[in-house]
Structure formats: structure tokens, C-alpha cells
Design brief:
Number of helices: 9
Radius of gyration: 19 Å
Shape: elongated
Length: about 200
């Protein structure tokens, strides 16, 4: 009698997959929870873009997709996708997060698709670096005339330390709400329709 390899079952809530494990599974519904600009700069092949802030709108479609097979949630590093997996698990939707995100995926030489045409926003990490650097520099320059302005630099520095210690980023959450980081309504509707399909 020859042993048979069982087909992969839907992923249990809270599971984390490495890039190689996810690549080997193949048949996964991939949801990228980064901003549209980050998604356009490079995403897993076949990934659907639903920004983390819009996850609740797509919950019924995600539940449907998870019922058909394993659901993999992806971001740049794995932090936002882990948050999304926790939120989905609280709603009874089983999903896995990609450990290390698209950074780990591409670092192992796996393919990324890129959206062509049109100007895409910078990746969120680059937007945060620009905003934080600009605020620190402004605080230091203004501080030459008004000492209290140095508190701007101190506040940003404190926020960066807090971000590193907690794995969260308040500045990224604020920047993600800017219009250029939002999907067009038609894009989100098409994504939800594809997940329901």
C-alpha cells in the first residue's frame, strides 16, 4: 500500500506560514492588506488588495473565500497581516499570515507582480521615513528661533521608539488615510466580487 499525501486543509486561525511553505502550498487565496501604493509596487502573484483599514467592508467576501480554501494574509513585513489575521479570527474567519511578508517572499527569490501604468504612491515605509524626517528637521530648524519647537523632534523620536518597541506605527496609520493611499471604490468592489466568485 502506497501512502498518500493529504491535500492541504483550510488554514487554522492564527497560523503563520513562511514564504517557502506558502510557495509550496500553491493553492491559496492571497489577500494583501497594504495600501494600494505598496500593493502596486510589488505583490504576490494573484493577490487581492484589501487595505487593513477596509478589512471590515470585505469581511463577508473573505468569509466566503476562506470557506472555499486556505486564506493567506500578506503585508510588507508580517506585522499588519498578523493584525488582520487576529481580526479575522475574532470573526470566525480562518486565515494565516505570511511571516516576513513580501520582503521575505522576494528575499527568497519568489516572484512579485507589479501594477503597470500610472503613477503609484511610495511604499508606506518610505512615506513614514519622509514624514518623520521632515518633522524632525522642521523641529530642529524652528527650534533655533523658538526653543519649544524642539518638542516636535522629541515627539517624533518618542513615537519612533514606541513604534519599534510595540511593532505598531501610528504615523503609518495616519498616512494610510490620505487620499493617495486609498483604493478607488471600484477597485475595492472588484476585489470583493472576485473573492465572492
Amino acid at each position: 500500500m502506497t501512502p498518500t499525501t493529504p491535500s492541504p486543509a483550510p488554514t487554522p486561525p492564527g497560523t503563520a506560514l513562511t514564504a517557502d511553505e506558502a510557495h509550496a502550498l500553491g493553492e491559496l487565496t492571497v489577500v494583501d492588506v497594504r495600501t494600494p501604493g505598496e500593493y502596486a509596487s510589488g505583490h504576490l502573484p494573484g493577490a487581492h488588495n484589501i487595505p487593513l483599514g477596509r478589512l471590515d467592508e470585505a469581511l463577508p467576501a473573505l468569509r466566503t473565500a476562506a470557506g472555499r480554501g486556505a486564506l493567506l494574509v500578506v503585508c510588507a513585513s508580517g506585522a499588519r497581516s498578523a493584525q488582520a489575521v487576529e481580526r479575522l479570527a475574532a470573526q470566525g474567519v480562518p486565515a494565516a499570515t505570511l511571516t516576513g511578508g513580501t520582503t521575505a517572499w522576494s528575499g527568497l527569490g519568489h516572484e512579485l507582480d507589479r501594477t503597470t501604468g500610472g503613477r503609484t504612491p511610495w511604499p508606506m515605509e518610505r512615506q513614514v521615513r519622509l514624514a518623520a524626517g521632515s518633522l524632525v528637521l522642521s523641529g530642529l530648524l524652528l527650534g533655533r528661533r523658538r526653543a519649544r519647537a524642539r518638542w516636535i523632534s522629541a515627539g517624533v523620536a518618542g513615537g519612533l521608539v514606541f513604534s519599534a518597541l510595540t511593532g505598531t506605527c501610528g504615523m503609518a496609520k495616519v498616512l494610510a488615510r490620505l487620499p493617495h493611499n486609498q483604493p478607488r471604490a471600484t477597485d475595492l468592489e472588484a476585489t470583493i466580487a472576485a473573492l465572492n466568485g
